[in-house]
Amino acid sequence: MSLIVQKFGGSSVADAASIKRVAARIVETKQAGNDVVVVVSAMGDTTDELLELANEVTETPAPREMDMLLTAGERISMALVAMAIRSLGHDARSFTGSQAGMITDSQHGAARIVDVTPGRVKDALSEGAIAIVAGFQGFNRDSGDITTLGRGGSDTSAVALAAALDADVCEIFTDVDGIFTADPRSVPLAHKIDRITSEEMLELAANGAKVLYIRAVEFARRHGVTIHVRSSFNHNEGTIVYNPKEGVEVEEPIITGVATDLSQAKITVVGVPDVPGKAAEIFTTIANAGINIDMIVQNVSANESGTTDISFTLPQTEGEAALAALKADEKGIGFASVKYDDKIGKLSVVGAGMKTNSGVSAQLFTALFEAGINIEMISTSEIRISVVTRADTINTAVLAVHTAFGLDSDTEAIVHAGTGR
Ligand code: ADP
Ligand code: ASP
Ligand code: MG
Question: What Cα–Cα distance (Å) separates residue 55 from each residue in 61, 120, 207, 353?
């Protein structure tokens, strides 16, 4: 007998009919002789709707109350899924994040899981029931308060439970057939990847492929959990995300996938004195404001003025805080002005085979040149190359790059549901 954790995303539990369909799928897994633990997201766009509602009530919702509000979404689906399973004649019990032992730190809106104590889930399984757990939520022991794990965090809940229960597999059910070579909503000829290393998936997730939440991939990597991303709308095999064993050769495609990210902004600090220590001062100011930056570019110094410009990218959501922090230190650091630009897009190509193949950058830049797209910034890791372009060219860019690296399939991918938010 296997223990299987199954997570159903919002698009898979969007309405009553979907909930019944998902319940039948869960029962099928149970009847095949498995123990089943289910993690559910909020129905459809519930989380977005609750966020909008909060913002209509106040511009500055208290983080604690926001988490109280948002966790209601997953509570609704967990109870409905449990009811639907019971109506099919199987025992099912729903649990909130705290009842399921998802212990987190105290950071509302972006809490990290620090411990998982799923005693009640284990009891339910040993009594032959199916356990349904509300995703995306946890509990902080010190404050006694409810927390959320960040948008898309139900994936992390599922992987963390799979690790704590030593499950055989963590199945992530969604509205596409698995992980594709690009988002099938913007690249219709993207094709499904059968197997991908967690290292590559981490790079794709970190660079905008939101089919899996980055912290879930990190968790799976650290705890050796195998993830199977698949569709809740059919029984096709999906994509296995795995950790290759030390020393075992795997055949690595040069480019595994392409990801895009429109959530970043670019800040340029203009007229920075070109003397040692200024970059340190700027990025200390940014770090002290708790802001995560991604790419950095420093221009060649203009000889006459003895100053230079430094640009960096960061999440748009942190733009205001970064500008305020820099303004506060403007005199001390001695730069001339700051420019903010949120009309940028980032495109990344990822592939473990890049480590041993030269010419990938040349091929990428040529494809972008031929599509008439200007590159503003470049950054690389061992298995990734990213470029920043204008936001309104990103769709053209991803289509061109996907074709140039020979990733196009003969048939169009099917996206079953959802708005893609
Ligand atoms: P869920 O509601 O199941 O959590 P998400 O919307 O979070 O679903 O994730 C599924 C969506 O991720 C797909 O509909 C697809 O548009 C998007 N996506 C982005 N990049 C990829 C990719 N490389 N492969 C598959 N889907 C992707
Ligand atoms: N409902 C939450 C969200 O929309 C968590 C999730 O779906 O994973 O972000
Ligand atoms: Mg998701």
Answer: 7, 36, 28, 45
Angstrom distance (rounded) from CA 184 to CA 412: 8
Fold topology of 248-421 = VC0802-like (3.30.2130)
Ligand 1 within 6 A of 74 CB? no
Q: Is the CB of 211 under 6 A from ligand 1?
A: yes
The residues spanned by each domain of the chain are 3-174, 248-421
> Best of 136, 210, 214 to mutate for ligand 2, by most ligand atoms within 8 A of CB?
136
Q: Closest ligand 2 atom to the C-alpha of 48?
A: 4
Mean pLDDT over all residues of the chain? 95
**Does the beta carbon of 73 lie inside 6 Å of ligand 2?**
yes
In the chain, pLDDT over 70 holds for what percent of residues?
A: 97
Mean pLDDT of 358-381: 95
For 71-83, how does the pLDDT look when each residue is reduced to its tens digit (9 = 90+)? 999 999 999 999 9
- Is 3-174 assigned to CATH 3.40.1160.10? yes
The arithmetic mean of pLDDT across residues 85-90, rounded, is: 98
Does residue 265 line the site of ligand 1, with CB under 6 A?
no
Between the two ends of the chain, the Cα-to-Cα distance in Å is 37
**Which residue's C-alpha comes closest to atom 15 of ligand 1?**
183
Ligand nearest to the backbone CA of 14: 1
152 close to ligand 2 (CB < 6 Angstrom): yes
